[in-house]
């Protein structure tokens, strides 16, 4: 081939053109085929997928929050219900002339500036068709005022909603809990759009929280056809919501309210159990918060007030309050003694103190009880008797019996949290402190002090198990399987003897003689307890008098406890009462148990007693809480001492103080310090 | 074999082509009627008038003799080139680029007119070039200048779609004229190698379009929105479509530009695969008719011009359909005869008018 361009003739050029034009014509066909193929792929092969996507575009789902299931008591009385209320939302896409509409709304609903700012912020990052709440729980007049102007307020949607209502208010606060708007964290977890639907609330505390799956229900949905700009063209269909299930509790609403009221101005808890079924008839913990105000979204000030209160109204004391059980463990210790072969007739002489090595442990009765057998030791609550015999059988036998009766146990209940305390024994101490168990530890434990800690529910279970002789388990929901409970692995004769001794506490010569039931045919048996929350120094003991009584600041006063059951023969109800820093088990706790159990047999009589008391306390729970709130609102001077009690060393969760008592005593003893010899727990009942 | 009842000018018209074009245009008007929510306004009516007027113009243009067209090729090219320069200087900025020239009574888009003009001028150039010169450099550099000037002027407007079409239209004629094949293979290889450089010299919005074409799901609510929604509209139509006036993507405004660049998606949603096949087949008939005109044409100018114009119409359709079906980046090229808007109809009608004139010249000479 020669170099340089080839000479092309016209004929060759025509041939080239024809060839190339035909190639291009072919290319046109090929491209046409590719395009047709592509189209077939999109509209035939992938049709389903794109159809769905088009449907997704076209149809917007607006969720209708489900009505929350009711909570009812064992008789069907409502404990948590829904009340219709009125609310106003804004549909961002339909909103025109935002500033004017917001100003008008602010005027009509009397919204504060901070609320207006919140609405503006919400609108800024709102997603089109999803409503932004403007105001909830507004009264009918305001609702009507907005409704009649709806045509001038494009995008504003007045609607009916529901608020949770707890008829018993604060009395059921800790038991039932409350509902509230889902937090951002809740939403992050599963991105359920229901959680951010205006007006939807989830359970935040108590049964409302733990039973959320039952109570929530299924949301309804309104399907609407919307344009790309979010304008609703028409509503397609509406699926109504499925309300949540009604949850029947084992609780007796009347008893719960009564117990809460009866606690009065004290800080404490009352638990009542059915001895046949284990049903929890009441779990009152006071003071409490009003779940109604939480469910509306509690204000900062109100919350600050609750936090500042040294009676800890935010803590459910029936489950989370841990207390040294004091003398209420003595029936259990006595059962351990009987099992170990110590007969009821064996006795000791109580001189008011008990010598262990070079230390003296004191009985609550100065001067002593004299000659004491088991029955007398229980109804007189003689400490020295128990100091003496517990040394013979050892802590492990006692701890086994206590656990058998429910102390230290965590029960399978639908509650947010339980603190189950401590039943100490040799292995526990080795594990916890890496030191061996000492005899004075047994002395402390045997009178429910030292390392011993229980919550009020455990005390009630212990009482119910002693009363029934069965392995009862507490039950909070009426639908939970009914278990009568296996008989306890305890000689029924021993139980019979202990019950009779406990009856003597109330109906005989015992410590709670003032708390006999005011009923002709029903008697209550029980055991008082007074648990000390701090050490008593030798110097204080030398001065004499009460060490945890009226004269000392509230937080150093003794806890008052009582466990009991009724009737004495064939027991039906068991109860535990713990009053924080209430000073005397017999003076404060036992009368509360008396009145609460009386309510079960004769409500009218019990209420009459209570009404008189409430006059003395300055009204019922509601009035007292309202007054407190008003005072809190008016405080212009610095808050009283309550603020410093934000982290109380020895209030409800008495663990630190109670634990401190024993190690302090031990340290003193091992040092052989005679001056500290009196530095041990004291039992006053 | 002439029917004595029909006047000669009418009888010589390529009626099959005209009916095909009428079918495409008529179908387009139905789609525009639906896109407006079942209304003649604002699009279908005015587009119908425009379509009729330009079709009439095309038929008038078909009466012009091929010799006259040939003679006018360079002057027309020159005038349009001057107009492109004028656009740069006095132009009207719309939609992010400077494309329009406002003459007071009418706004014209010279870059549109350049699409047929470049074909004509290239055809004329190779017509003038002696056949012996075709393998020499003198066959290349004037062509490069003729194509390069309008290409660059349109590119800086910036209007990548139109510039590309001008380039392709011109290059296709050089290919048909018989330049050595290795030039095209070499240029293709060079283009591939230069792609990264080109990519980074694009305007931001152009680069985004390319990126989104490569991965539309990258930003389905933002830049990829057009392609995503277009594919949803086409895909959801199925075989027979959702039915006339029943498209949701277009009527609820999910599909952007549903009456202009993305009119094919509007159509496909309501008429389905069948409607799409109709459009594709009809356009294939048109461009194939034009290729056949070029094969029959007896003058070199006629051959080159006819095949080039066929390819110009083809590029229009192919680029638009590739774009709406997600095979090409969004370049802003309408579907001729169907999309709302005057420029594309005018350009395609000019192409058709020229083709009919060449066709007539061939028939007259037979």
UniProtKB/TrEMBL annotation, chain A:
<dbReference type="GO" id="GO:0005886">
    <property type="term" value="C:plasma membrane"/>
</dbReference>
<dbReference type="GO" id="GO:0008658">
    <property type="term" value="F:penicillin binding"/>
</dbReference>
<keyword id="KW-0812">Transmembrane</keyword>
<keyword id="KW-0997">Cell inner membrane</keyword>
<keyword id="KW-0961">Cell wall biogenesis/degradation</keyword>
<dbReference type="GO" id="GO:0008360">
    <property type="term" value="P:regulation of cell shape"/>
</dbReference>
<dbReference type="InterPro" id="IPR012338">
    <property type="entry name" value="Beta-lactam/transpept-like"/>
</dbReference>
<dbReference type="InterPro" id="IPR036138">
    <property type="entry name" value="PBP_dimer_sf"/>
</dbReference>
<keyword id="KW-1003">Cell membrane</keyword>
<keyword id="KW-0472">Membrane</keyword>
<dbReference type="Pfam" id="PF03717">
    <property type="entry name" value="PBP_dimer"/>
</dbReference>
<keyword id="KW-0133">Cell shape</keyword>
<dbReference type="Pfam" id="PF00905">
    <property type="entry name" value="Transpeptidase"/>
</dbReference>
<dbReference type="GO" id="GO:0071555">
    <property type="term" value="P:cell wall organization"/>
</dbReference>
<feature type="transmembrane region" description="Helical">
    <location>
        <begin position="21"/>
        <end position="41"/>
    </location>
</feature>
<dbReference type="GO" id="GO:0006508">
    <property type="term" value="P:proteolysis"/>
</dbReference>
<feature type="compositionally biased region" description="Low complexity">
    <location>
        <begin position="639"/>
        <end position="685"/>
    </location>
</feature>
<feature type="region of interest" description="Disordered">
    <location>
        <begin position="630"/>
        <end position="685"/>
    </location>
</feature>
<dbReference type="InterPro" id="IPR001460">
    <property type="entry name" value="PCN-bd_Tpept"/>
</dbReference>
<dbReference type="InterPro" id="IPR017790">
    <property type="entry name" value="Penicillin-binding_protein_2"/>
</dbReference>
<dbReference type="InterPro" id="IPR050515">
    <property type="entry name" value="Beta-lactam/transpept"/>
</dbReference>
<dbReference type="GO" id="GO:0009252">
    <property type="term" value="P:peptidoglycan biosynthetic process"/>
</dbReference>
From TrEMBL, chain B:
<feature type="transmembrane region" description="Helical">
    <location>
        <begin position="162"/>
        <end position="179"/>
    </location>
</feature>
<dbReference type="GO" id="GO:0008955">
    <property type="term" value="F:peptidoglycan glycosyltransferase activity"/>
</dbReference>
<feature type="transmembrane region" description="Helical">
    <location>
        <begin position="271"/>
        <end position="291"/>
    </location>
</feature>
<dbReference type="Pfam" id="PF01098">
    <property type="entry name" value="FTSW_RODA_SPOVE"/>
</dbReference>
<dbReference type="GO" id="GO:0009252">
    <property type="term" value="P:peptidoglycan biosynthetic process"/>
</dbReference>
<dbReference type="InterPro" id="IPR011923">
    <property type="entry name" value="RodA/MrdB"/>
</dbReference>
<feature type="transmembrane region" description="Helical">
    <location>
        <begin position="184"/>
        <end position="202"/>
    </location>
</feature>
<feature type="transmembrane region" description="Helical">
    <location>
        <begin position="113"/>
        <end position="130"/>
    </location>
</feature>
<keyword id="KW-0961">Cell wall biogenesis/degradation</keyword>
<feature type="transmembrane region" description="Helical">
    <location>
        <begin position="74"/>
        <end position="93"/>
    </location>
</feature>
<keyword id="KW-0997">Cell inner membrane</keyword>
<comment type="similarity">
    <text>Belongs to the SEDS family. MrdB/RodA subfamily.</text>
</comment>
<keyword id="KW-1133">Transmembrane helix</keyword>
<comment type="function">
    <text>Peptidoglycan polymerase that is essential for cell wall elongation.</text>
</comment>
<dbReference type="GO" id="GO:0008360">
    <property type="term" value="P:regulation of cell shape"/>
</dbReference>
<feature type="transmembrane region" description="Helical">
    <location>
        <begin position="303"/>
        <end position="325"/>
    </location>
</feature>
<dbReference type="GO" id="GO:0005886">
    <property type="term" value="C:plasma membrane"/>
</dbReference>
<keyword id="KW-1003">Cell membrane</keyword>
<comment type="pathway">
    <text>Cell wall biogenesis; peptidoglycan biosynthesis.</text>
</comment>
<feature type="transmembrane region" description="Helical">
    <location>
        <begin position="42"/>
        <end position="62"/>
    </location>
</feature>
<dbReference type="GO" id="GO:0032153">
    <property type="term" value="C:cell division site"/>
</dbReference>
<protein>
    <recommendedName>
        <fullName>Peptidoglycan glycosyltransferase MrdB</fullName>
        <ecNumber>2.4.99.28</ecNumber>
    </recommendedName>
</protein>
């Amino acid at each position: 081939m020669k170099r340089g361009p080839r000479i092309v003739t016209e004929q060759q050029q025509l041939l080239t053109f024809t060839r190339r034009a035909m190639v291009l014509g072919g290319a046109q066909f090929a491209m046409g085929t590719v395009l047709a193929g592509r189209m077939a792929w999109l509209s035939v092969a992938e049709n389903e997928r794109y159809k769905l996507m088009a449907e997704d575009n076209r149809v917007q789902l607006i969720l209708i929050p489900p009505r929350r299931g009711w909570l009812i008591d064992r008789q069907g009385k409502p404990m948590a219900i829904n009340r219709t209320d009125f609310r106003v939302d804004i549909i961002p896409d339909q909103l025109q002339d935002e500033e004017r509409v917001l100003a008008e709304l602010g005027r009509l609903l009397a919204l504060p500036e901070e609320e207006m700012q919140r609405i503006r912020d919400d609108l800024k990052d709102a997603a089109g068709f999803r409503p932004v709440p403007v105001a909830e729980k507004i009264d009918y007049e305001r609702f009507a005022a907005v409704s009649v102007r709806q045509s001038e307020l494009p995008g504003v949607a007045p609607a009916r909603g529901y608020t949770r209502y707890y008829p018993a208010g604060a009395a059921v606060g800790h038991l039932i809990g409350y509902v509230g708007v889902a937090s951002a964290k809740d939403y992050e977890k599963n991105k359920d759009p229901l959680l951010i639907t205006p007006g939807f609330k989830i359970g935040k505390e108590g049964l409302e929280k733990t039973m959320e799956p039952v109570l929530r229900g299924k949301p309804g949905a309104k399907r609407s056809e919307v344009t790309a700009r979010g304008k609703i063209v028409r509503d397609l269909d509406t699926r109504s919501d499925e309300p949540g299930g009604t949850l029947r509790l084992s609780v007796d609403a009347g008893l719960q309210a009564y117990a809460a009221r009866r606690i009065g101005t004290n800080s404490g808890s009352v638990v009542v159990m059915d001895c046949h079924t284990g049903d929890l008839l009441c779990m009152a913990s006071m003071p409490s918060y009003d779940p109604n105000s939480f469910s509306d979204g509690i204000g900062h000030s109100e919350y600050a007030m609750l936090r500042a209160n040294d009676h800890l109204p935010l803590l459910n004391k029936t489950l989370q309050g841990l207390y040294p059980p004091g003398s209420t463990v003595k029936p259990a210790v006595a059962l351990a003694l009987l099992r170990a072969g110590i007969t009821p007739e064996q006795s000791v002489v109580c001189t008011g103190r008990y010598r262990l090595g070079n230390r003296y442990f004191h009985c609550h009765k100065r001067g002593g009880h004299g000659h004491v057998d088991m029955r007398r030791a229980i109804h007189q609550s003689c400490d020295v008797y128990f100091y003496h015999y517990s040394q013979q059988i050892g802590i492990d036998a006692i701890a086994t019996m206590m656990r058998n009766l429910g102390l230290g146990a965590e029960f399978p209940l639908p509650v947010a949290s339980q603190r189950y305390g401590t039943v100490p024994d040799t292995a526990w101490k080795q594990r916890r402190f890496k030191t061996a168990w000492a005899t004075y530890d047994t002395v402390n434990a045997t009178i429910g002090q030292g390392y011993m800690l229980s919550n009020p529910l455990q005390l009630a279970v212990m009482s119910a198990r002693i009363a029934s002789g069965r392995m009862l388990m507490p039950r909070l929901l009426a639908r939970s399987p009914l278990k009568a409970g296996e008989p306890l692995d305890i000689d029924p004769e021993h139980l019979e003897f202990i019950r009779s001794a406990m009856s003597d506490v109330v109906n005989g010569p015992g410590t709670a003689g003032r708390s006999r039931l005011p009923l002709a045919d029903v008697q209550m048996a029980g055991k008082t307890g007074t648990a000390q929350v701090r050490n008593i120094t030798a110097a204080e003991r030398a001065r004499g008098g009460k060490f945890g009584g009226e004269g000392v600041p509230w937080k150093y006063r003794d806890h008052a406890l009582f466990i009991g059951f009724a009737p004495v023969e064939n027991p039906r109800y068991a109860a535990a009462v713990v009053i924080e820093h209430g000073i005397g088990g017999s003076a404060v706790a036992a009368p509360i148990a008396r009145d609460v159990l009386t309510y079960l047999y004769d409500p009218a009589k019990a209420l009459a007693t209570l009404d008189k008391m409430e006059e003395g306390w300055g009204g019922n729970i509601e009035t007292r809480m309202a007054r407190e709130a008003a005072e809190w609102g008016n405080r212009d001077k610095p808050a009283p001492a309550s603020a410093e009690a934000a982290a109380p060393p020895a209030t409800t969760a008495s663990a630190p103080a109670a634990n401190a008592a024993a190690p302090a005593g031990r340290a003193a003893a091992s040092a052989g310090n005679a001056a500290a010899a009196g530095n041990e727990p004291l039992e006053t009942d | 074999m002439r029917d004595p009842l029909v006047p000669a000018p009418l009888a010589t018209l390529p009626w099959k082509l005209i009916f095909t074009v009428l079918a495409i245009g008529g179908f387009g008007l139905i789609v525009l009627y639906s896109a407006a929510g079942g209304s003649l306004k604002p699009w279908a009516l005015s587009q119908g008038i425009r379509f009729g007027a330009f079709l009439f113009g095309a038929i008038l243009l078909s009466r012009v003799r091929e010799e006259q067209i040939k003679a006018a090729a360079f002057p027309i090219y020159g005038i349009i080139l001057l107009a492109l320069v004028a656009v740069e200087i006095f132009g009207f900025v719309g939609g992010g680029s400077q494309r329009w020239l406002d003459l007071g009574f009418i706004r014209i888009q010279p870059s549109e007119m350049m699409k047929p003009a470049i074909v004509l001028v290239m055809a004329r150039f190779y017509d003038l070039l002696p056949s012996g010169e075709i393998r020499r450099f003198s066959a290349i550099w004037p062509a490069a200048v003729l194509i390069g000037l309008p290409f660059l002027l349109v590119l800086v407007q910036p209007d990548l779609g139109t510039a590309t079409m001008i380039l392709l239209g011109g290059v296709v004629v050089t290919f048909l004229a018989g330049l050595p094949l290795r030039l095209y293979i070499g240029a293709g290889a060079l283009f591939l190698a230069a792609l990264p450089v080109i990519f980074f010299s694009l305007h931001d919005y152009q680069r985004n379009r390319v990126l989104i074409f490569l991965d539309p799901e990258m930003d389905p609510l933002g830049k990829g929105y057009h392609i995503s929604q277009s594919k949803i509209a086409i895909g959801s139509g199925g075989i027979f479509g959702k039915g006339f006036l029943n498209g949701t993507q277009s009527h609820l405004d999910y599909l952007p530009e549903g009456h202009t660049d993305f009119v094919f998606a509007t159509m496909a949603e309501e008429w389905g695969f069948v409607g799409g096949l109709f459009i594709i087949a009809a356009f294939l008939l048109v461009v194939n008719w034009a290729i056949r005109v070029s094969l029959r044409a007896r003058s070199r100018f006629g051959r080159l011009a006819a095949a080039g114009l066929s390819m110009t119409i083809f590029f229009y359709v192919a680029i638009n359909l590739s774009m709406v079906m997600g095979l090409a980046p969004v370049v802003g090229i309408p579907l001729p005869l169907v999309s709302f808007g005057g420029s594309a109809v005018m350009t395609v009608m000019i192409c058709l008018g020229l083709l009919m004139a060449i066709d007539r010249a061939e028939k007259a000479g037979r």
